[in-house]
Amino acid sequence: MAGSEYWFLVFYIFVLAVIVGVYLISKVPPLLHTPLMSGSNAISGITLVGAVLATAMASWDVNGLLAFFGVTLATINVVGGYAVTDRMLKMFRKQK
Amino acid sequence: MRTFEQACFLAASLLFMLSLRWLASPKTARRANFISMAAMALAVLPALIAAFRGQTSANLVNNLVIIGAGIALGSAIGLASAFRVRMTAMPQMVGLYNGFGGAASLLVAVLEYLFKRDRITVDSSIPVHLSVLIGGVCFTGSMAAFAKLQELISGKPVLFRGQHLLNLALLVASVAAGVFLTVSPGSLTIFVVLVALALVLGWLVVIPIGGADMPVVISLMNSYSGMAVTTTGFVLRNNVLIIVGSLVGASGIILTHIMCRAMNRSLANVMFGGFGATVAAGGASSAKGTVKEASPDEAASILANAQAVIVVPGYGMAAAQAQHAVRELAGILEKRGVSVKYAVHPVAGRMPGHMNVLLAEANVPYDQIFDLDSINEEFQRADVALVVGANDVVNPAARKNPSSPIYGMPILNADQAKACMVLKRSMNPGFAGIDNELFVQPNTMMVFGDAKQTLAKLAACVKEEG
């Protein structure tokens, strides 16, 4: 695919994802805004994908160390974010 | 392999969207979180396979150690912190995780540049520089928010002369560095300068913002972490990162917007205002009248004879860890046939939805919790509005006094209840530094003391009423 064609396609994806995001998130009630925030926060740890791929190119040097930090920090974000979100969501219950 | 990878990414993207859809109701919300985890696994799997497949044995060991150790350590820290954190400390926990996400995006961009700097093309270098800038600002900005919320540094706005000019200069300099590196790539020094500029900028942008405005900052940083993921997706040409980053970015922006609207202020006002510091200096005392203090005994007899009580929680409830005490008092009142509801203002607490989580922790059923629009009418019919550690969000000056800094902010109409009880440590003004007219109203009684202890006393006194 030619360079400009690729970026147009990416731009479509980006704009459509933002529209879907705005639509979906405006439906989340204020009651769940904290879990929304911590959950979406966990999702943003998906940058782990980038950290893993970068590790594949790194070796035992500064790059390797940076990659290690990248993987660690992204994993804390993902695992901690999901765990804390589940802890919160478990507590929401209805009147008996 | 390529097909498998793309299929994983497509499935992951759709599942992430489904997960957000399910977050629309507390009934499906837990399921939403699980489906999101599954989507995450699907998105990461192809990268893991790529890191281990068809590598030379030396590389394989290298990758195994770095990735294995990183994931093991990250999981251990993540789980330990997630299970130990108190619900009242959730805002700083989310801030911290958010900063880590930003830092990871920053590191990925840095590595990309280090690997490819002698042959980087324009369509890689622009997203790399954006990633560095957004990821860096998200990292140190979130750390500054964390430090404020954890009270490692003062929660008050940190202001100095020429602050905004300095921030603007830093932003211009970092954009200039990015442009320079795009036009003539390869310099390591200028790239390091760009990283440093982004890191300093993030810190400086957040420190002038006061503690009570943290819901906005946390939301905004959440949005930045999403945008950083999107730019990382541009760097790696990975669609799932672009999509997910856009979803998170949109989420942060919407929450930021809701928070700003709930304070009747623009984002620019929150970011540059130094609200709290300026107001405290110029805020003339508009509240005149006498404060009526009530003992827990007197307050309890009114509560015991009420029919409808609305509880208004605020940051003070979190600070005093009083959510369980609130629930206990409510339980005793309900046994006497009193209807108890909870009114939560969007900016009560230190992050969006903070109060809802605390009430849920104390076993308050979520169908007793109402937001501003759905309960404000009911205050007129309520016998008692019980304000627990809330201040600015119930200040009638927002409705009545055009010269008040918070004029126009939508508030909970606690002042319209037949009686209003305010549990408060002292007469100190709230974070906005404004006197509260509610406290001197004829139908208001102040019950001073630690909220948790006061609530326990109230509960004991109501029980004695028999």
Describe this structure as you would to a colleague.
The complex is a heterodimer of chains A (96) and B (466). Chain A is mostly helical. Chain A has one domain. Chain A is built from 4 helices and no strands. Chain B is of the alpha/beta class. Chain B has 2 domains: 87-275, no CATH class; 296-464, TPP-binding domain (Rossmann fold), CATH 3.40.50.1220. Chain B has 18 helices and 6 strands. Chain B has helices at 2-22, 29-52, 57-84, 90-116, 122-149, 163-183, 188-206, 214-236, 239-262, 267-273, 277-282, 296-304, 315-319, 323-335, 354-361, 372-375, 397-400, 451-464, and strands at 308-313, 339-344, 369-371, 384-388, 419-424, 444-448. Chain B has a 6-stranded parallel sheet with strand order 3-2-1-4-5-6. Mean pLDDT of chain B is 90; it is low at 278-285. The interface between A and B is large, with 81 and 109 residues.
Sequence stretches where pLDDT stays below 50 over 5 or more residues of chain B: 278-285
For the largest interface, the chains and their residue counts are:
A-B, 81 and 109 residues
> Strand-and-helix sequence of chain A, N→C?
HHHH
Contiguous helical run count of chain A = 4
Number of strands of chain B: 6
Distance between the termini of chain B: 73 Å
Q: How many discrete structural domains of chain B?
A: 2
Structural class of chain B: alpha/beta
Strand content of chain B: 5-15%
Mean pLDDT of chain B: 90
As a percent range, the share of helical residues of chain A equals over 70%
Rg of chain B, rounded, reads 25 Å
What is the N-to-C succession of helices and strands of chain B? HHHHHHHHHHHHEHHEHEHEHEEH
Largest sheet of chain A, if any? none
Q: Give the mean pLDDT of chain A.
A: 92
Please give the radius of gyration of chain A in angstroms: 18 Å
Characteristic terms for this protein:
heterodimer; A: 96 residues; mainly alpha; 4 helices; 75% helix; 0% strand; flat; B: 466 residues; alpha/beta; Rossmann fold; 6-stranded parallel beta sheet; 18 helices; 6 strands; 61% helix; elongated
